[in-house]
Structures
1.
Amino acid sequence: MRRFMKSIGKTAPARSVNDYLAMLPENSRAALKRLRKTIKVAAPKAVEKISYHMPMYNYLGMLVAFAAFKDHCSFFVMSPSVTEAHKDLLKRYDTAEGTIRFTIEKPLPATLVKKLVKARIKENEEKLRKRETASRKRR
């Protein structure tokens, strides 16, 4: 992220998602504003913050994040299993473990983002249930 910020002439890290978006070129800003709105609709209980110099959403742990880079944007689902479970829907995109790269000319569809965010919510809720069950068994 710092490399990108230097490439657009900014070096100070953003303190809020609004600050982060304001530092971006207009075309990247518009694409990521749409992504942000979709995430908020899919995860209304998620807390928005800046973490690792990028917008991050937290719900029972890290949920999803996004970032702009010089030649692409990334949507981080932070879960190889969610990426794998949706690989048929993601085959048009460049993916890596828990990361989906896209261009501003070809943004992620809102329906896809919602599915991925909801899958992450379900995953985080299941992890919490498992921790609570394990905790009760130890007592």
2.
Amino acid sequence: MSLACIKLRISLLLLCLQLVGFSQRPAFDTALFYKHLITENLFTEQIAFARQIQNVHIASTILQDSMRLSISLAYTKMGNVDSSEKNLIAISATPGFSVPSSELYVSLLIVRKEYNRASIFLNSFTNAMPIYLKEAGTSIKMLQNEPTQPDTNVSAYAPALLEIKHKYENPPDHSALLAGIYSTILPGMGKLYLGYKEEALSAFIENIALGAQAAESYYKVGPKSVRFIVTGSLFGLFYGGNIWGSVALAKKQKRDHRKQIEYEIYNYYNTRIAEHIQ
């Protein structure tokens, strides 16, 4: 064991002893002191003190879950994703969190891609579900590429999430098959159908130019000439590539749309988490 590691363990041990001793003073306010650690961004001290609280209140499931959530958030602030996720998944399947804690919990689950755990938590609400939890349910469906359910309270969703939902429900409806057929009929037409005007014009000019050269070679020097074989092969290559490119572009358009939806959802919930961090 290195000297630096030994010093670190000794420092943490002394800190824990100080916290335990301090917490036993008559005038000590545990909640106030813990809030002070959070406010001052004393992450290591916060985690150590939270562990002490867990050790003292082993029988309290709610308190254990609250401390796990708090520790997970502290690790998130520190940029330690693995430790954050480890404490997050250690929380009970249906923790009895307050409204702010529930919002933070489901936000962390979504950005950590723990969709099944988040769904179990959402399904545990038998009474009227708060709007932010309905938002979370809709977000999970979008991330799992499932149909979104009609919601009479959808107008109460955050504007940013409403915009994402609208994009999700209105994806590009261009057909890869049609794009290929159009490109077969006229080079560049498939790309024009997909909305890429510059690429369509470029494909049209390239194929027309190569096709004209191939036709000229055929009529002037014959089908067995090297010139025709070269120009004809190039035309065939570009013509086929244009068809394949249009089909691939149609598929890419849909993939990019889905990736954009995912990015915007994660960004939305990261913003919600950041609100708890401040």
3.
Amino acid sequence: MFFIILILILLLLFFKCNSKFSKIKKSKVAIISVMYKPKSINVWLDMHRNLGISHFYIRLEDTPELVEYLEQQPDVTLQVGTSSASNQYTSIMDRQLKMANEALELCKQDGMDFLIQIDCDEILEGDLNEITDLPENVETFWMQNHEAVYEGIPSSQDICFKAKFYKNCEKENCVSYVNGKGGGRVCDTVVSNGCHRFKGNGREVKLKNLIVKHYESCDFEQYIKKYQRYQKGVKLNDIPFPYYRESILAKDNISLLTNIYKKYRTN
């Protein structure tokens, strides 16, 4: 009888240790994000918590109304800053790189195993086990981005993270980047490699079961504010995306901005 009970206990432990939940908990995955006026931040956080994300390292810029809320979140490490710069388009990339490297150091202190960098208008979707099960010789990875396309023009009253369908940017034309977003193992050899990648001494792989859904600016009001900010000190030759260039040139012409949004973002 004793041996039967012992075998049952061992079997229970085996299945518990091999469940998806325990794998995600065993290896902790964190997100770093630099944010300006994020919309639906509570939804963004909860969607990633439900996926299995353990911690968030957030740099919040020029958004004092959200400081208290984020400071109250036990799984958020918050840095409050400003986005003032002579060139808003290029300077954000420098701040993202700096913040990602700072987050990697914080991850070591907090016991995180992997770090992913995404924006506040992006949502991870898929299976985190693909990260936690990576072999030790893989130090960095990246996920393909899929871009949201809307039925009509979303307003500030609409839920941010919903769309009619999503373009796979590896296969279809997308309005901004096509080369996905990345992450890395928390170790001494991995550092940020800009706003889309990490680099290390080990292998890099593309994940198959985890993607990044990109909701560019989320709604029309955010879209206008974003490109009004990008007008400051920007050099159009530095921007490879026609959608960005046309939006910046449209300035405060709401009618023209509406047509640009419809042309590139709706179906």
